[in-house]
Amino acid sequence: xxxxxxxxxxxxxxxxxxxxxxxxxxxxxxxxxxxxxxxxxxxxxxxxxxxxxxxxxxxxxxxxxxxxxxxxxxx
Amino acid sequence: xxxxxxxxxxxxxxxxxxxxxxxxxxxxxxxxxxxxxxxxxxxxxxxxxxxxxxxxxxxxxxxxxxxxxxxxxxxxxxxxxxxxxxxxxxxxxxxxxxxxxxxxxxxxxxxxxxxxxxxxxxxxxxxxxxxxxxxxxxxxxxxxxxxxxxxxxxxxxxxxxxxxxxxxxxxxxxxxxxxxxxxxxxxxxxxxxxxxxxxxxxxxxxxxxxxxxxxxxxxxxxxxxxxxxxxxxxxxxxxxxxxxxxxxxxxxxxxxxxxxxxxxxxxxxxxxxxxxxxxxxx
Lengths: 75, 282
Hints:
The structure holds two protein chains of two kinds. By secondary structure, chain A is mainly alpha-helical. Chain A has a single domain, classed as F1FO ATP Synthase (Up-down Bundle). Helix content of chain A is 87%, strand content 0%. Chain A contains three helices and no strands. Chain A has helices at 2-22, 24-43, 51-74. Chain A starts with a helix and ends with a helix. Chain B is mainly alpha-helical. In chain B, strand 1 (24-28) and strand 2 form a beta hairpin. Chain B is 74% helix and 5% strand. Chain B has one domain (29-262). The longest helix of chain B is centred in the C-terminal third of the chain and has 43 residues, at 175-217. Chain B has eight helices and four strands, in the order H-E-E-H-H-H-E-E-H-H-H-H. The chains are: A mainly alpha, B mainly alpha.
């Protein structure tokens, strides 16, 4: 009984740690892309047309965060 | 402490029902038919009918309404292809496939957001309909077809020999060339997985978020889940755009670097020929 409770608690702790730690990297990555894009537009307003490319790179990084989120429902 | 955590876990377990994998509805001669397959047939028929009707109604003089939106999106994708291939002719040459895949992914994403698709309507206590792009098999099929078509176009553009040579770019006597070449070939396979996983995870997690907020809202479910449906409309369009942009970029990379190492290859062949002639002279 106690072992089952312990296993369940460890699972829920592990899930929390996984989401919390796993989202750090993608969050920093998306922040860096946004920073670079805003900087580029600030220096050269013509660069605003590259929003599509910035979104594509964000889509690539977002995959890592989504993998973490999906693993939450699989394990 | 443990009992508190367990009760929390119990609360989490009584939450909204979410599915990562599609459910089997029934079997036809031993072949399982899943809910996403069922909806894929419906949505595929709807998309083909819609696009055929729009194509029939298109005239030289611009018309208002849905036709104008489809025309604008087609022109948008052609413009994007023009940017990545740096030539209008090439963009128009490859446009049919990329525009098709854009509308296929976009309309599948949007058709999955209609109320009633997902967990709401059940059959044998399993959801009856599931969006096609919320099934990894479906997105994997789209990604595999895309990468096969990209390879086909690249080989058609630059020929077998030069296409394989572009993976092994550099001097052929250098072992690093072979190492990086094999890595490049492996990258092609990871591209299939990343294209499929990106589309699948974005759609399925959108479905989960909508389900969670509809569950939290209880009686006010339409109000609480509406902002996330709107967000998913945007994400669905963005994912279709990203899918097409990335596959176009892969094709552009595969076709544009085909000319750099021609001179070196010719030099190698000339050296081989001269060695042969020296040997025969001896």
